Amino acid sequence: MAKVAVATSDGFTVNEHFGHAQFFRVYELNADGYEYAGIRDAVAVCQQALGHDTTRFDKIIELLSDCDAVLVNRIGEGAAAYLIERGVRVFEVSGTIDAVLTRLKL
């Protein structure tokens, strides 16, 4: 079974930029599809006045450490590289959470 974290502002679509996400919905994927496993509150890593703060990236990585992938609508190149270097699989996708998770093969 795999776990996936989804950046969403409305709980229905993958519509949030990684750096702006204030929470992630977590889903467990299984042979029958997927099921909702909870919500993880986060502090947005991209603060307009401060720019990127890698300590916040590290907190998100820790928060989602049991997840096999993170699904976002957008992520900056620097943020994606930082996560990937630390073993986090991150995917830019769009659509409803249901449609994306139904198509997802990890």
UniProtKB/TrEMBL annotation:
<dbReference type="InterPro" id="IPR036105">
    <property type="entry name" value="DiNase_FeMo-co_biosyn_sf"/>
</dbReference>
<dbReference type="Pfam" id="PF02579">
    <property type="entry name" value="Nitro_FeMo-Co"/>
</dbReference>
<protein>
    <submittedName>
        <fullName>Dinitrogenase iron-molybdenum cofactor</fullName>
    </submittedName>
</protein>
<dbReference type="InterPro" id="IPR003731">
    <property type="entry name" value="Di-Nase_FeMo-co_biosynth"/>
</dbReference>
<dbReference type="InterPro" id="IPR051840">
    <property type="entry name" value="NifX/NifY_domain"/>
</dbReference>
<feature type="domain" description="Dinitrogenase iron-molybdenum cofactor biosynthesis">
    <location>
        <begin position="13"/>
        <end position="104"/>
    </location>
</feature>
